[in-house]
Amino acid sequence: MNETRIAPPKDVSTSRAPRVLVVEDEQALALLLSYNLEAEGYLVERVERGDDAELRLAESPPDLVILDWMLPGVSGLEICRRLRAREETRALPVIMLTARGEEAERVRGLSVGADDYVVKPFSVPELMARVRSLLRRARPERIASRLIASDIDLDRETRRVRRAGRDIHLGPTEFRLLEYLLEKPGRVFSRAQLLDAVWGLSAEIDERTVDVHVGRLRKALVRGRERDPIRTVRGAGYSFDETFGKS
Ligand code: CA
């Protein structure tokens, strides 16, 4: 082990991409949700059965759960009730999905502690807005602000990035990478740390993938003679240059 290895950031749990667990036995719907959540930059896990969800939730709670009501194994209602009974998951944001739109059922869903309740069929953009809003309430420090460094402006709410007034179009991975680096200007992150934070702890991806995405991010951010805000630190990794815009 190399002595200059950088210790993992202590606050990595609050600055990585939010993790969303989708518990839904209708495969087409589960796929649609995962696809849209991933496009917004979340790390998504899917399970189809209620009992599998319970196991998964006991291992390490995600940042938000989208929970179908009617599930094989254990019902969504029961899972929600149990989540609320446990100290570690009492405040975990839960969105319940259900095919039943009856007012009495809605009241029942909310009475077991769901934060929100969505009746199928629903609009995906509407559900995404509710996910964002719940995560913002749960982790205000992560999503509440814009990150600005000189002429670069990253807006977490609209997921837009601008430089010198022009729109910068980034894929979800490049967006997340920039967001993560911008949260701690000057701090050098190793490729392994960036993989954990941006791709997820379980990602089995070659570290060179990080270089590819940093390359894309630079290409998108830097036009003509503009300064490159990302610093490559040989043998260590990458950082957002803390002197950017100050010299
Ligand atoms: Ca179902």
What descriptors fit this protein?
Arc Repressor Mutant, subunit A, Rossmann fold, 247 residues, single chain, 40% helix, 11 strands
In terms of DSSP E residues, the strand content is: 15-25%
CATH architecture name of the largest domain: 3-Layer(aba) Sandwich
Order of helices and strands: HEHEHEHEHEHHEEEEHHHEE
Strand order of the largest sheet: 2-1-3-4-5
CATH class descriptor name of the largest domain: Alpha Beta
Looking at this structure, what is the CATH superfamily of the largest domain?
Response regulator
- Mean model confidence by pLDDT: 85
Number of strands: 11
Shape: elongated
Instruction: Note the total helix count.
Output: 10
Give the ligands present.
calcium ion
Largest sheet: 5 strands, parallel
Spatial separation of the terminal alpha carbons = 36 Å
User: What is the radius of gyration computed over CA atoms, rounded to a whole number of angstroms?
Assistant: 20 Å
Structural class: alpha/beta
The residue ranges in which pLDDT falls below 50 over 5 or more consecutive positions are 1-15
Count of individual domains: 2
The CATH topology assignment of the largest domain is Rossmann fold
Helix content: 40-55%
